[in-house]
Design a protein that fits this description.
This protein is an alpha/beta fold and 330 residues long. The protein has two domains: 166 residues, Rossmann fold (3-Layer(aba) Sandwich); 143 residues, Rossmann fold, CATH 3.40.50.10750. It contains 13 helices and eleven strands. Helix 8 crosses helix 9. The longest helix is centred in the middle third of the chain and has 17 residues. The mean pLDDT is 92.
Length: 330
């Protein structure tokens, strides 16, 4: 897990303000204490400081912590945030009174804190459905100027003793886009390449398919072939191969048999799946059968760092997601 240690140290240097809105959840509180104690980031919790501190005192023997708090019931703050939301969404027909109602939602409030630069990143989703997290993120934060699409990736971290390939891999898109077009698939790949570079992984990209080197005439294969072509045109300096089957992307002997003219040298470390079915099943198969640690889904293509936790997440998963989010704040 050398990469995670490296990212943790980098997070400590960046030391951004990360908001965890779900301060009623015990896992979030425990992760917040650990992150704050280790000075991974300046952790900000959403809620009343006295109420949260009484819970913190029950959890920790130490009365000292370096947490900050934003109280969503503060009337002046609610009004300020409602004005920000109204200005952001009035072109969509939102009325100010509706804005006042909407800021009662913790996710909306958190996104507005991020929009107003009062925090540098948000990690949520431990108790909030993904649809609500992603919907509010898109409405309030929006897509980054350099992207056309929000997607996601999992950082797959392997124990080197049990794995013959690269110790760290990126799988994308495993959480958001159900059946991307060729253009959308290319956009996902470009975002994943940027994410890999941001995590100090030199990207070697495989555009995965059930077919290698166009040897089958199906629309699903043509989609991946076209996406590969778009990526190669836009990113000529990146090592990309596709359409390709997983075994050929990972093993040079297989690649030489199935695609001898390819200049790509396996193994790939950024795997782009053709659709959400393949991606979601794929990462879970790898996670369950190899014992790989899967950190994510990490969102990419958003104007500011936001990440959505699984509702079944552990304290460690919250901790690791904050580490990745902190690295996105640089």
């Amino acid at each position: 897990m050398a990469l995670l240690e490296k990212l943790t140290k980098r997070a400590q240097k960046i030391f951004p303000r990360i908001l965890l809105p779900e301060s009623t959840d015990l896992r979030v509180i425990q992760a917040a204490l650990s992150l704050s104690t280790q000075k991974i980031a300046k952790i900000v919790l959403l809620g009343n400081e006295d109420e949260i501190c009484s819970r913190l005192d029950q959890l920790s023997e130490s009365k000292k912590h370096d947490l900050e708090f934003i109280d969503p019931k503060d009337e002046k703050l609610r009004n300020d945030y409602a004005k920000t939301l109204f200005e952001r969404r009035k072109h969509k027909g939102l009325e100010f009174n509706e804005s006042l109602d909407l800021v009662s939602n913790a996710t909306v409030f958190a996104m507005l804190a991020l929009l107003r630069d009062e925090v540098d990143g948000v990690v949520t989703g431990a108790i909030t459905p993904s649809q609500q997290v992603l919907g509010n993120t898109l409405r309030i934060i929006g897509v980054s100027n350099n992207s056309k699409l929000v997607s996601s990736f999992f950082l797959m971290m392997f124990n080197q003793n049990h794995h013959n390939y690269d110790q760290n891999m990126i799988f994308s898109d495993c959480a958001m886009n159900i059946d991307p077009t060729a253009e959308e698939l290319a956009e996902i790949a470009q975002s994943a390449i940027k994410s890999a570079k941001g995590l100090d992984i030199k990207p070697k990209v495989a555009m995965l398919s059930f077919s290698t080197n166009q040897n089958t005439q199906y629309s699903q294969v043509e989609k991946v072939r076209l996406a590969t072509s778009i990526c190669k045109t836009k990113l000529p300096d990146v090592d990309i191969v596709g359409n390709i089957q997983l075994d050929a992307a990972l093993e040079n002997k297989v690649l030489q048999i199935k695609y001898p003219e390819a200049s790509f040298m396996p193994p790939a470390n950024v795997l782009i799946f053709p659709n959400l079915d393949a991606a979601n099943i794929g990462y879970k198969l790898v996670q369950r059968f190899s014992g790989a640690q899967a950190i994510g889904p990490i969102l990419q293509g958003i104007a500011k760092p936001v990440n959505d936790l699984s509702r079944g997440c552990s304290v460690d998963e919250i901790f690791n997601t904050v580490v990745i989010t902190a690295n996105q704040c640089k």
